[in-house]
Design goal:
This protein is an all-alpha fold and 226 residues long. It contains ten helices and no strands. The chain has one domain. Helix 1 packs antiparallel against helix 8 (134-150), helix 3 packs across helix 7 (122-131) and helix 4 (82-101) crosses helix 10. This is UPF0056 membrane protein. The chain crosses the membrane at residues 12-40, 52-71, 77-101, 122-144, 156-180, 201-222.
Amino acid sequence: MHFDTIYNQVLLVLQASILVLAALFPIVNPIGSAAVYLAMVQNVDASTQLKLAKRITMYSFVLLIASMLFGGKILSFFGISLYSVQIGGGLIVAANGWLLLNKDASKDRAAMPNPEAVLAQAFYPYTLPITVGPGSISVAVALGAHLPSEFHVRSFISPGILISSLLGTIVTCAIVYICYRWAKPAADLLGKSGTTVLMRLSSFISFCIGIQILTSGIRAYIDVLR
């Protein structure tokens, strides 16, 4: 009986971890986010980029876990709906994508950003909304609300659910770190022309993602009014 209990707990942790990873990975989209990130830090020195990647990874982990644990309660306390988060976040992501799309590369090459100023922006905008945007927060809040009922446990802080959520989030953030850490070497392999094309394309995709998040929020708001 004791062995069966342990086996069931391990199975629950594995299943929930895979569910968390499968839910977060597509919406966080580390590869696409890394391309946008690279467009913003292409003139930053390697050591600062390494520090920045570590901070973004740490902030992303904290933000996702906090959204799972407290996101629903915080939104409810302030009377904020998920569609409001989507509308506001979508506007920010779209505006950032538009700025990157119209960025003058020749002026960027002439300007060398201050490392301290770059690191001060690790949370905003590099973590929120570039890496963990409103879509990711919405998914994390939904996971925190539905995982307990999905696996028939009392609350999100039940050991099995909490451990699996930590594991799934850690794996997601580890992939974010790998993609951001090696974004510059990957761009060097592509060459100058390839990198320019990738950056413009990723900026356009970021703009489109922002519009998609915005329209999803507006659609949800219209549905509530009906």
